[in-house]
Amino acid sequence: MRREPPQRLADYGPLFFPAGMLTVFFVVPFATMIAVSFFQREQGGFYTPAFVFDNYARFLSMFFGKVLGFSLFLAVAVAITCVVIGIPFTYLLSRSARKIQVVWLVALLSILSLSEVMIGFAWSTLFSRTAGVTNLFVWLGLMAQPQALTPSFGAVMTAMTYQAFPYTVLVLYPALVRLDPTLTEAARTLGASPVKAFFTVVVPALRNTILATLIMVFIFALGSYLLPQLLGRPQHWTLSVLITDQAIYQSNMPFAAAMAVFLVLVSLALVGLALYAGQQRQAK
Amino acid sequence: MSGLNLSHVTKQFGNFTAVNDVSLSVPDGTFVCLLGPSGCGKTTLMRMIAGLDLPTNGSIELGGADITAVPTHKRDLGMVFQSLALFPHLTVGENIAYSLRIRGTPKDVQKKRVDELLAMIHLPGFADRSVAKLSGGQRQRVAIARALAISPKLFLLDEPLSALDAKLREAMQVELRQLQQRLGITTIVVTHDQREAMTMADTVVVMNGGEIRQAAAPVDIYRRPADSFVADFIGQTNLLPVAADSTGRASVLGEVIEGITLPAGAAKGMLSVRPEDVQLTAPGHGAIAGTVTFIRDLGGAIETFVEAGSTQVIAVSSPRNRPDVSVGQSVGIRLDPATSVVLAR
Ligand SMILES: Nc1ncnc2c1ncn2[C@@H]1O[C@H](COP(=O)(O)OP(=O)(O)OP(=O)(O)O)[C@@H](O)[C@H]1O
Ligand SMILES: [Mg+2]
Fold it and tell me: Cys bridge to B82: A135, A175, B15, B159, which one at CB 3.0-4.6 A?
């Protein structure tokens, strides 16, 4: 089908509504945030329009650098964990009977209906000393005494992986279902064991999907601010936690805005880098 | 005993028997075609030979060793799938070298073998191309080269040519046969195109309903079909009822035909006569009586449809021996016992 390019202004009509929505709900708030990040903070939670770099300067300290580093590390770790567990899981799911697939997909979709708060409190109960899973281990004779597993880095990782996992599966699933099953069979007739066939055929054939999934989970995890607070120690707090803290409890809008802008820039740069690396390998 | 041996191989899916008690012996270096209508179990049988499906019953032997339970990747075979299943993320050369890479063959040996195979399939210099940019026939050849890279003991192809247009298909049939003869490799091809089977095979295996109906050389399959299914499935044939009287003389459509005998004890049977073996003559003198109902001139051959009793008999003649008949005319039909085959009913 050949499409005519739009001729008159009216031909652009269908674009007005989405463009308007995008402007009102994304461009304006984001521009406001950029502007605020350069404002001058006053005592008592107020700020006055200005053009100062104080907020950014304050941000460039050792402490905030460390928090930024940890946030990126945590997001990358969650993304990799989700994908490493998600690919074999989704692969097996896509090869199993229809009924089993439906049950799993419904279960995963229902996780999406849980809010971050519910997930956080559920895991903090599960990881607690008084009512947690360790009581089960004690009962089974695997442990001598119940133990608190939270706050800890492991608890934060577990809950965040749990939260991002349904998205991972939902992105991978269509690609794996579409993957021709005779590809792995061909690999097996050519001498590859099922495991080798998985790593030499399924994974490379899905490289672009895997990259897209990694980026999606990375960004998703970067924005998480409740789970690190609920399940982690202060050193496990992410930049998102600090932004919330500054914006809501310290009433320091300009500083919060500066951190948010910086976080967006860093994550954009990382995503760009990942895409560029992916393209380089593709071209080879 | 070397070669491939299937004994009493059966495959059931739930209550459904897809392959039923199949026994077959394929000597080394033979080209076998599995031929049969859709759903008769050809693919299932081939998948069991490849180890992609496990037989419910029976055993498979290759080169004297029982391979029934050996996993696919340890069978050292080459297989070409109907969808070809070329790896989209690899180049032509990497596709062909895949089986060598998996076995840890040194890079330079791989490269040499790939060049050799590309020359063999008439695609020299294609190693660095992407498989997505090949034509149908080229993809076909790459799939064949990939399957042959390790010089397998057994070469399996499941409807390898069905995606190609008629002309290319004929050319590939000849090429595949020549390649097989040059390499002397035991080859099994699944097809439902009987011309394809006749072109390529040393042995044609006709299957129906999960069972082997006949396994023989193409000429024998055509000239001496084992039963009415094979006679009807391979080429065109006239199936005429034969009855024997108390003295054992056989008659077809009311006329006694000398030289045709039914198996001892049988009172009824079927006679398979190829249309080109049916002779039209003047009525009477012991010929079967019939009436011409339709004449079809195909240029290269003339088909005359004759109604005899309530049975339709088709006669084919070449334009040089055009029968001098017209629609509605009474004619006589003569059958040669030497070219007619009596089949059980
Ligand atoms: N995994 C399966 N589960 C259930 N039934 C199956 C399965 N695979 C094949 N069948 C059935 O077994 C029968 C034989 O199938 P098969 O694919 O071997 O036929 P085929 O001779 O290759 O046919 P075609 O020429 O159409 O490819 C069919 O009736 C099919 O429905
Ligand atoms: Mg088939």
Answer: B159
As a whole number of angstroms, the longest Cα–Cα distance in chain B is 79
Q: From chain B, pick out residues whose CB is under 8 angstroms from the CB of A189.
A: 50, 52, 72-73, 75, 77-79, 147, 156
Whether the predicted pLDDT of B306 surpasses 90: yes
Task: Indicate if the pLDDT at residue B95 is higher than 90.
Answer: yes
A37 domain-assigned: no
Mean pLDDT of chain B: 89
Complex confidence, ipTM: 0.81
Contacts of B102 in chain A (CB under 8 A): 187, 190-192, 196, 200
pLDDT digits (tens, 9 = 90+) for B311-321: 889 999 988 88
Indicate if ligand 1 lies below 6 Å from the C-beta of B18: yes
Rounded to whole angstroms, how far apart are CA atoms A200 and B83? 19
Residue nearest to atom 30 of ligand 1 (CA): B39
C-beta of residue A63 within 8 angstroms of C-beta of residue A234: no
pLDDT digits (tens, 9 = 90+) for A136-148: 888 888 888 888 8
User: Which domain range does residue A168 map to?
Assistant: 56-283
Q: What is the pLDDT of residues A70-124, one digit of tens each?
A: 999 999 999 999 999 999 999 999 989 999 999 999 999 898 888 888 999 999 9
Do both B185 and B333 map to the same domain?
no
> Are the CB atoms for B144 and B121 separated by under 8 Å?
yes
Residue A33 lies in a domain: no
Nearest CB to A204: which of B89, B146, B150?
Answer: B89
Residue A78 is predicted with a pLDDT of 95
Per the structure, the count of domains in chain B is: 2
For residues A76 and A218, is the Cβ–Cβ distance under 8 A? yes
**Three-state DSSP string of A118-145:** HHHHHHHHHCCCCCCHHHHHHHHCCCCC
Q: Is the CB of B52 less than 8 angstroms away from the CB of A190? A: no
Strands B154-158 and B186-191: parallel
Which residue has the CA at smallest separation from atom 29 of ligand 1?
B39
Write down the pLDDT at residue A284: 53
Q: Within a domain: residue A10?
A: no
Give the integer Cα–Cα distance in Å for A114 and B108.
56
Is the pLDDT confidence value at A283 over 70? no
Give residues with Cβ within 8 angstroms of A160, minimum separation 6: A74, A78, A221, A224, A227
Whether residues B146 and A200 touch (CB distance < 8 A) is answered with no
